[in-house]
Amino acid sequence: MVAGLLLMALEVGKRAPRLPGLARISRVLFQAGEKFSPVAAAAIRGAATAFLPCGLLYGAFVMAVGAGSASGGALTMVAFGAGGVPALAFVQSQSRRLMEHPRAQRAVRRLIPLLAGGLIAWRTLATHTGHACH
What we know:
Number of strands: 0
Radius of gyration: 17 Å
Strand content: under 5%
Shape: globular
Distance between the termini: 26 Å
Helix content: over 70%
Order of helices and strands: HHHHHHH
Low-confidence stretches: none
């Protein structure tokens, strides 16, 4: 997951082939959202993101499967949602402001994956270090 976040921060995905159907659906939903209030537009953009590939979500699915039980997997996904929803809501609510500042867009696209990757690596190392002490 950390490697995927690093690749995202380096914008490696821009050179990857696109899935035309998914991009068109997202574009239509994003354009439709411009006609509504900021709250409704954010909700529509949130719905549109489900059509985009998401390495973090796929990583959470892998972690949920590895939890070893249905309840552990469900708890993993609830924790992922509880952590992800506030961050995504904030970014989507500020998307119009970011559109006005291309440099800020680029910084956010790089900074968020780097911070998330660093946090995951830090917590993973702390967890393994803690287990080694027992």
